[in-house]
Amino acid sequence: MNQNTGERATGAKNPSLLVILGPTASGKTSLGVALARRLSGEIISADSRQVYRGMDIGTGKDLHEYGLVPHHLIDVAPPGYEFNLFEFQRLFLAAFSEITRRGRLPILVGGSGMYLDCVLRGYRLAQVPEDPELRRELAPLDMEELADRLGRANPRLHNRTDLTERVRLTRAIEIAEYSAEVECEPLPETSTVTLGIRWERGLLRERITERLRARLEAGMIEEVRGLHASGLSYQQLEFYGLEYRFLARHLRGELSKNDMFQKLNSAIHDFAKKQENWFRRMQSHGTPIHWLDGAGDPLGEALDHIASLKEPFPGAP
Length: 317
Known about the structure:
Elements lengths: L16 E5 L6 H12 L1 E5 L25 E2 L12 H17 L3 E6 L2 H8 L11 H7 L4 H11 L12 H13 L13 E7 L2 H17 L2 H10 L4 H5 L3 H10 L5 H28 L5 E4 L4 H11 L9
Parallel strand pairs: 1-4, 1-5, 2-3, 2-4, 5-6
Helix pairs in contact: 2-3, 5-6, 7-11, 8-10, 10-11
């Protein structure tokens, strides 16, 4: 996968994409579905884990909320598969084109910052094959030397986690150095309106804790136990996010149920803070976000904002 960025149109006529973002447990799905019903829209998920089949409760798919509203990029990969940003962009563009062709409104809903940024800032991605010769060249270098080489190859590095593990760092260099040799297809122009849901920190913490309890009561432990029984190792499950990581440790006997709940709850709170920091960076990089009060009437606020646009979406009030 190769990554370059370019600014997307956000103020042009005839908005063609509505984006709903916010931290975990902020109510993105409910708002997205309500707007889809009002605006003849279809949901495109921007969640890096809801792509996996069988990972329903732990990823918060909440499929019952959609009703008859069509949704895309959910359940598109088997558990155990390492879905990536290139595949997300490819599937997003296909869904966007199909929804638009049918005269309906694409609504991108999610909280995975890189996936959202990929669309809103127009990353130009190409699939990058492994390069055995380059890997042999990088093998003798220490982590500091590898990080320095990546910095030279990609001065606008987005994902700092690439610097913490040797395998990821090597792959990041492979991708960055491939960029000089590949011409990417231009992305279609889209005019976007981005709405964010914001909660007071204490209220969001309460929502996160209540949702975690509800998911455990709904059978989240049994879901993880079933995934393990189907062939996924506990090590593989740790790759799929906080819920699966801590539940795997509980099922291995490393954490009591109470300790698992407390540690997982705290980790999700920290994750929500990181999401909010990412959204602030998106704004500082030029993505306008109109924030809605989650504790108020986010649907009403959203509809009022859409109605105030010079060129509103088709079907807007």
